[in-house]
Amino acid sequence: MNMLERCWGLDSRVAFLNHGSFGACPLAVLAVQTELRRRMEAEPVRFLDRELEGLLDEARAALARFVGADPDDLAFVPNATAGVNTVLRSLRFESSDEILATDMEYNACRNAADFVVGPARMVVARIPFPASSPEAIAGAVMDCVTDKTRLALLSHITSPTGIILPVESLVKELQGKGIDVLVDGAHAPGQVSLDIAGLGAAYYTGNCHKWLCAPKGAAFLHVRRDRQQRIRPLIISHGANSRRIDRFRFRLEFDWTGTADPTPYLCVPAAIRFMEGVVPGGWPDVMRRNHALVVEARGILADGLGVPEPCPEDMLGSMAALPLPQALAGPPAPVSGRDPLQERLFLEYGIEVPVFALPGSGPKLLRISAQLYNSCAQYQNLAATLKQLAAA
């Protein structure tokens, strides 16, 4: 067993190679959440009515230091999909407007864009895959920009392929043309270093329950100060007509949207501290180790399957995707349910790894994740299993 695996409560019978989907919360952080829940239920009014505001301030300050932002520009949301929806549902589009997204945008967020577009037009940039360079991706996006483009929705790290998009150059170029950018950073916090204030995007949302390893239900939305007046939470509550003048309206509206369990948000500082201390070099070492492991694992799988590596390793964080050879791809996945190969790997071999098709007529992909609890032996076993299945 990988020694660090003991810090998580993962099922020892399963090789869990899919941290990217929902993350996995360390036991020490779950213990903090349990204590917070005990405090809340011991005296709910004291906790939710008297103490919560200060506790949220503390949690937001720790998160702001980690992601490079001003705490007053951050709002907690339950997940990045909610963050994307919050921005899109707050904006209004005219018939002459265009919203730009890529074909590798997360399906739920693309659905949100399709829902709100109204009289406007969706424009989809096709991201090359295999991808030769960040410049090739930036070119594919900018080629779709017109004088009607009003908003660009861009993943920081693409969910299906794990490729890091060149958001720094894209945000600078797009916003230089007067186009606001909404960055879907669902996978970014804890996988790559962030300086959200320095990035300067109008909107940025990211998950804390994935690579940051906080409990499920912890994410954030960053709204640049000059855009906060137009952004409202998905749930309008008491803050909408608050007469308080000691806080921004943005803060008053987002900090209380109704009774819910706030403990995932309050555990974010504990998750940051835990991951900071679990390896000698802190967060830079966490990211370095995970990147090195996923690059090594990708090489093992590419060699075993006889397929090319689809992008340079410096375009990866802690996830990587590989095209499956035809002998393994099999039929399309059912309309409802997981891919047959993914289910077979899990049910027969105890390997949890996602298999899915690229949008359109793209190839089926196998996507691996690397977190501190993973080991090279797990990917070697996956490669051997896939080789065996291909030969059968």
CATH architecture of the largest domain: 3-Layer(aba) Sandwich
**Percent helix:** 40-55%
Q: Which regions have little confidence, pLDDT < 50, spanning 5+ residues?
A: none
How many E-type strands? 12
- Gyration radius, to the nearest Å? 21 Å
Determine the N-to-C terminus distance: 30 Å
Number of domains: 2
For this structure, the CATH topology of the largest domain is Aspartate Aminotransferase, domain 2
Query: Largest beta sheet, briefly?
Result: 7 strands, mixed
Strand portion, in percent? 5-15%
Strand order of the largest sheet: 2-8-7-6-5-3-4
Structural class, from secondary structure content?
alpha/beta
So how many helices?
15
How would you spell out the order of helices and strands?
EHHHEHEHEHEHEHEEHHHHEHHEEEH
Overall residue-averaged pLDDT value: 95
Outline type: globular
